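#data-curation
PF: Archiving a pair of folding outputs for the training set. Convention for this channel: one message per protein, sequence first, structure tokens after, nothing in between. First:
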Amino acid sequence: MTQTQNTQTQDAPTQVRVRLGENNYGKAEVNLFKVFRDTPRHRVRELRVRVAMTGDFDAAHVDGDNTDLVATDTVRNTIYGLAKEGFAGSPEEFGKELVAHFVKTGPKVTGAFAEFTEHLWDRVQVGGEGHDHAFVRLMPKRTARVEGDGQSFKVTSGIEELYVLKTTQSGWAGYLLNERFTTLPETHDRVMATFVTAKWEYNPGDVDYDDVWTRAYTQIQETFTDHYSPSLQNTLYLLGQAVLTRCPEISRIWFQMPNKHHLKYNLERFGLENNNEIFHVDPEPYGLMEGWVERA
């Protein structure tokens, strides 16, 4: 053995003992679009899907032994195939189909989860009527996650990127002012805007997920309008209370609501009066409110 080889041998670290922890694998960013053509008035649904499986995958990780593993390409094909044969209702019910399928067909699979982001489409309006087969994509997105062992399931549903704004009936006052770095003046009349992200869990029992989602989506918008808001925190709480009141199927709901600041622009320097008409929309930084609202 040369001196160089001997030095390399002496310097090589001793491998530590490890074990495989929690793990999963599957397919992500599967973009599914389905046209329902059972009547002349078509319907469409568009989902971005992620499916992952859990189970006894130690051999694949530790020994490189792929025996009885479901290929991720098969996962992708299954999503499209089952969407043709099933997916007649909500993403949540489709998620249950997918989870049950992979637990049944994968020899080493003991559980799975499916996550969905649904792009919402509305009908193009022609002469005040929705067109039969022309659609326009909306900004908000519907979300869902289904996990389980093929027999029992935990379902979470939600909303992303619901951009809401009101031009008055909002303020920010009564906060800590006698503090070294506080410069923001109080206001009782401001533009309040936010992107609402929400997710909710369900009480036990049968659920019409499409119907619950529509009621929650509608209630969030209605409640945003119906009160003077002294803070985004207060509005978050009132939104949760209203959704839980309208949707007894929901056990609790979580919100993430950033302040999308609309700052009154200084026109006085140009000899112009700004009566809360002209604003600069500030992209960052922003306040961020998050919280669960739960049944007492």
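PF: Second:
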Amino acid sequence: MRISVMMAGLNGAVAVGLGAFAAHGLAGTEMDYARGLVEKGAHYQLVHAVALAAIAGLVHQVPDEKFLRLAAYAMLVGILFFCGSLYIIAFSGVTAFGTVAPIGGFSFIIGWLLLAAAGSRRFA
């Protein structure tokens, strides 16, 4: 689960940096759409970075870490596809990348459900 801790730290740092850039570097009415995309991506990335840290902290609390490991991977895939597509659209203007965002959203949902499954196995 060390990878979850590393990914939590890296994703948290990237999310905060991009969020700050969106707030300060994308100011102006012509950049409002791009700023909104970056802020949304940074928000989701930061939330899931915290979830990755929590997953890493839970690894010793569950009898079988398989579901936790899968939850972490699903959240990483979600960050890549959902947040990544928003960042690419914001910085390049290529809106075709929006078609992969639902893959990331679905991965986030799967990650949270796998986390729930890990918890249910702990208390079963």
